[in-house]
Amino acid sequence: MTVTTSVAPATRPDTRESRALELYRTRGREIVLVDVYTYEVPSCSGLAPYIVDLAEETCSCPDFSMRRENCKHILAASIKRAKKRGDTARRLAVLEERARYEDLPADERLEVLDEVVRLRRKLSP
């Protein structure tokens, strides 16, 4: 006698967070910074992109208009911003180490320090 059992496949919960992550993974390159805190985020339905303001935490999509809570577009733009800030912070750390420990010619040292100042400004809120 053979006994068979079936195990239901693991499913990911269909949450705004999971949809935002999927949107970032598949179309993250299309999320465009248009102002300091404003992004154009592609619509999953293929319509015009939605406008996300991370400072105000608003989005022009119907989901946000109806519920007034973070939609997948706000979350996807937040992921994009966090990843970009992480890349900038890593670049800044490398340049600071270089300026601190490497024996650089004067003109190269000034270039490195100028870039350090620029990146620090970029990271400040």
SSE blueprint:
Elements: H1 16-27, E1 32-33, E2 38-41, E3 50-53, E4 58-59, H2 62-67, H3 72-101, H4 106-123
Antiparallel strand pairs: 1-2, 2-3, 3-4
- Biggest sheet overview: 4 strands, antiparallel
**Assembly state:** single chain
Query: How would you spell out the order of helices and strands?
Result: HEEEEHHH
Number of strands: 4
What is the overall silhouette? Answer: elongated
Give me the secondary-structure category. Answer: alpha+beta
Q: Give Rg in angstroms.
A: 22 Å
Residues in β-strands, percent: 5-15%
Q: Averaged pLDDT, please?
A: 89
Helical element count? 4
Spatial ordering of strands, largest sheet: 1-2-3-4
Number of domains: 1
Helix content: 40-55%
Distance between the termini: 68 Å
* Unreliably modeled segments: none
Walkthrough of the structure:
There is one protein chain. With 125 residues, the chain is of the alpha+beta class. It has one domain (16-123). The protein is built from four helices and four strands. A four-stranded antiparallel sheet has the order 1-2-3-4. β1 and β2 (38-41) form a beta hairpin. The protein is elongated. The chain starts with 15 loop residues before the first helix and ends with a helix.
